Amino acid sequence: MAASIVLAGGSGFLGQALGTYLCELGYKCCILTRGEAGTRDGIRYVKWDGRTQSGWERELEGAHGVVNFTGKSVNCLYTKANRAEIIRSRLDAVRVIDEAVRDLKVKPKVIVQAGSLAIFGNTERECDEDAAHGNGFSVEVCQQWEKAFFQQDIPGVRKVMLRIGFALGPDGGALEPLMQLARFGLGGTIGSGRQYISWLHLHDLNAMFRYALEEEQAEGIYNATGVQPISNREFMKTLREVMGKGWQPPAPTPFVRLGAYLIMRADPELALSGRNCVPKRLLREGFSFRYTKLDEALRQITAQ
User: Fold this and answer.
1) Model pTM greater than 0.85?
2) What is the mean pLDDT of the chain?
């Protein structure tokens, strides 16, 4: 019988991609969702609210692993209510999954938590897993999140936190808005252009999840990002070249802030800040990347 993987909150871009990838490897996948239950494209969808046990926990019994993607999107204005929900949604999901796993007779071998490189704040210095944390709301969210995830030790269950970078893939995700800007002649440098983008191809991210799920020595925190972080200026230049676009005007910081607040309805620091992160642990443990050059990754994605 095929081993099963449960993807909590996995109905978004990254979760759907991972579910498809794991099914192709022969796993059975179940996504815990606030959306509709049922079976689509070979993946079972089971209702949950991310806070309470209501029957979904039975899906975890005997599963090989759990991957938790749950959390309100940070792509919003950081109002008091949104800040509270960003934190609550993450901590509640971590807590209720731990509670459910502790009560199982046959526990999963591993819980993998999808985290964020935002814990390093806005910085141009190189950050491996042991680098100092930054400052600000996003950093505080990540610190509380990681503390909650590792707070409860469950005997026989490994815990792995993947601090995920800027994942590039087709048909959505973080890359799509930047491609749209380039299509309409607005794909120039954003803000100062010095802010780093710690990017990785979606294929490599899926392979990192597989590594965390299957390799028994994998435990603790990993920077889940590529090997060559790049400045926003160089990223946008490479994207334009791959898309066959010439020079396009930059978006000065004041315009980015105004557009973020009035049009995107999101915190402008999502575009204006960045971090220069490297996957030190994965490289040390022998993980092999398929995509190490940005132009090759973008050409593969845009050709689809």
Assistant:
1) yes
2) 96
